[in-house]
Amino acid sequence: MDEIDYAAMLAVALAEARIGLAEGGIPIGAAIFDSAGKVVGAGHNRRVQNGDPSLHGETDAFRRAGRQRSYRELTMVTTLAPCWYCSGLVRQFGFRSLVVGESRNFQGGMEWLRSLGVQVVDLDSSECASLLADYIRRNPAVWNEDIGEE
């Protein structure tokens, strides 16, 4: 991509987060883009809907992207800084870039990924932050379960 349109990329992930919220789940969305800016896969947190603790937004987008020969030229975009589990996915498969909608509600492994050479762009989106903060206020137990807190 000559000119990277992070806002357009985040809009795809944010739309997924809203779908998840409408389904009764945690509003975190993600999307994976190729170097031309084309969506390869998009998804949202489905832990509550599917009763699957591994189905975070990033893992849903990753699964929907299907098998790839390489992930090095792909960009993971997520509405929230990825947890350690999802940060591990970014690291394991060699994504070189990560776009984060916000890290106010949760920092996850963002700094760890930066230390490993992953380009991390934090857009500090007020829309992403307020969407999740409202959910956390209404559902603290579900949120704590999602991030592995008691």
Task: Explain this structure.
The protein has helices at residues 6-22, 47-50, 57-65, 84-92, 110-115, 126-138, 140-147; strands at 29-33, 39-44, 75-78, 97-100, 119-122. It is α/β, with parallel strands linked by helices and 150 residues long. The mean pLDDT is 96.
Question: Briefly, what is this?
Answer:
This protein has 150 residues and is of the alpha/beta class. Helices cover 44% and strands 15% of the residues.
| Main structural class | alpha/beta
Computed over alpha carbons, the radius of gyration is: 14 Å
Mean pLDDT: 96
For the biggest β-sheet, the strand order reads: 2-1-3-4-5
* Run of helices and strands: HEEHHEHEHEHH
The coarse silhouette is: globular
Number of strands: 5
Q: Termini distance? A: 42 Å
DSSP helix count? 7
List low-confidence stretches: none
Largest sheet: 5 strands, mixed
Approximately how much helix is present in the residues? 40-55%
Q: How much of the sequence is in beta strands? A: 15-25%
Give the tags.
single chain, 150 residues, alpha/beta, five-stranded mixed β-sheet, globular
